[in-house]
Amino acid sequence: DAKTTQPTSMDCAEGRAANLPCNHSTISGNEYVYWYRQIHSQGPQYIIHGLKNNETNEMASLIITEDRKSSTLILPHATLRDTAVYYCIVRVSNTGNQFYFGTGTSLTVIP
Amino acid sequence: DTGVSQDPRHKITKRGQNVTFRCDPISEHNRLYWYRQTLGQGPEFLTYFQNEAQLEKSRLLSDRFSAERPKGSFSTLEIQRTEQGDSAMYLCASSLGIGNTIYFGEGSWLTVV
After folding, report:
1. Residues of A with CB under 8 A from a CB of B
2. Percent of chain A having pLDDT more than 70?
């Protein structure tokens, strides 16, 4: 599985959009980009995933660059409950491969 | 709640004792995963099952660790002769089939004193 690079930490004002970047320059054509988050002392929570096209669900939007070497997770209106560590993971989806987590981005939403 | 369930949520044990954690995956999920997470680090893969077959084990899974999924439903992770370095959160996850999203439980915290 390709490796990802994320900033160690970020701050975001409550009510503003949080934009979390991820670099995955060695991603292969059949690897999906997944995002999870982990609130303190809880298990990782699935947020969203995508292959090529931008994706949106009730939690977030995922923007993948055309060359697929980077992506951005967007939380449109951050709340204090969005304070968490966010993990960007690339994974081949048509195999049984598990996820390999990095250290993620610690997002702090500021009142 | 029909998510991944783990038990116990917290366990304190003395060094040298054996501990066992149980995981109940989401109903009908045939793949089950175990991860370990220490403070400040992301989860690290330990092993996974497809139905009752254990298909892959990480190098992190020493001989003192054993995982089973006897009937392809719940799974147990046993740690024998615990050491202080085993103190961590043990996470279980499940997915429906190959390539589908993996859903995690809330984890089982182990403290070895």
Report:
1. 34, 36, 41-46, 49, 85, 87, 92-96, 98-104
2. 92
